[in-house]
Fold each of these.
Amino acid sequence: MISMREEDFQREVKVVIVGNGGVGKTSLIRQFCKSHFPEEYKKTIGVDFLEKHVYVKNLCEDVKLMLWDTAGQEEFNSITRSYYRGARGAVICFSTTDRNSFESVENWKQKVEDQCGRIPMVLVQNKVDLLEQASVERYETEALAENLGLRFYRICAKQNLYVTEVFEYLAELYLRWDVQIMQTPRLVIGIVKLALRNRKSSLKFQLRMWLYLTLQQISGSYQPEI
Ligand SMILES: Nc1nc2c(ncn2[C@@H]2O[C@H](COP(=O)(O)OP(=O)(O)OP(=O)(O)O)[C@@H](O)[C@H]2O)c(=O)[nH]1
Ligand SMILES: [Mg+2]
């Protein structure tokens, strides 16, 4: 009897949330994963971690996002950077009311790319409920997003505005990127796993599985946005 478990094909992706201290990274993650908004600011020390499943409608696929909440305060810089390794997605955040956080965006992108290379990313402006205290102009935020080649979301973690959209978009971007980048290694791993689990199964079956997996990959191919 051939056994295939769902987790053999389930997608899990490590996502890092980066940006200056106080921009609302923890609030964004908590709102998304727990529908909870922490009013009080407690700076993250090192890293924190939450996970949530996202269903990507356009591709009819479920992805488990493992969200790594990193500390934005400079004092933790050297520690948090090592946690970027293995991330296949990043959310770069700045705050509507903190110009410095906006000016640090390129720097955060570079830090992620130094550890992870060019992975799917999204740019987020948080605290849009405080637009009357804004220290950044709309045209400059849009120009930055365009220069960096990133999709840009204006969100409010406090009022849960466009929070889910950020992660749904990133999950879709990841799936499409993954098809291109990881196609060959994943096929090989899938076949080896199956072969090991079903040592007694026929060569004919192994070949059929290979064909099935290949067709699955091909049917999802596209041009990535990054
Ligand atoms: N008005 C408003 N306040 C927000 C929003 N999101 C977060 N905050 C507040 O901003 C402060 C900082 O939020 P955090 O989520 O802790 O910020 P952080 O980016 O995780 O900060 P570090 O852990 O130091 O890197 C908290 O007091 C939050 O309540 C928002 O959308 N609107
Ligand atoms: Mg935090």
Amino acid sequence: MARHGGRGWYGRVLAAAVGVTAVAAATSVWTAQAGPAGGSQAGAQARPSAAGSAPAKVSVDIAHASEGGAHAVNITIDDGPDPEWTPKVLDVLRENGVKATFCMVGTQAKAHPDLVKAVVAAGHRLCDHTVSHDTSMDKKPESYQSQQILDAERMITEASGGVRPQYYRAPGGAFTPYSRTLAASRGMRPLGWNVDTKDFERPGTAAIVATVKSEVAGGPTILFHDAGGERSQTVAALGEILPWLRQQGYTFGFPVR
Ligand SMILES: [Zn+2]
């Protein structure tokens, strides 16, 4: 899977600090998006506002930073929901008091609306991960990209009972300028990652844990998977790495929007 390295959160903080225009733009986006609970609160979700109103636009830039600041990490969980593994991931997150961002595949969300609702009820956030997880969608027509993103947005929102996805993550990182602009226009911030645990390759729990320990200093957004195969290693790794991260002084947040 393609990485989105090179733009760690230090870089973004620095860019904001030196650019008055960037600061002003970021402030206006934040103001437009901040919810009544302050945005970083665990249960804050993008609920539909007045009937027929469009969601507020967000930045088209691929996000890596955390709303929680420089000492927060973003736990992101991709490709579900899955009836066997998503409940186990929810258990380990709850046991550790961690809120995460779930990048859901539209067909999976439609098939398991109870799990989508459970994710929302536990205070996690939703992310649009397209209808069919086509990692070469960046090579395909805009009409196809649009269908993949907007149909998944609808499927996830219907499954959740009206809670919208707040992010868009292209499968395998196959973003295009068009897809980022489209997602942002729907209030879904393009979402990258810094640490690819490669848990989908089942390298062993110890290897997944070691990857996080060695790479987390390079950026706060960490990628795991709760579907697409047997995920006992992922569940076990989360059970080890979440307490370790806390011991290291990290907190847990959501990606910036
Ligand atoms: Zn994926």
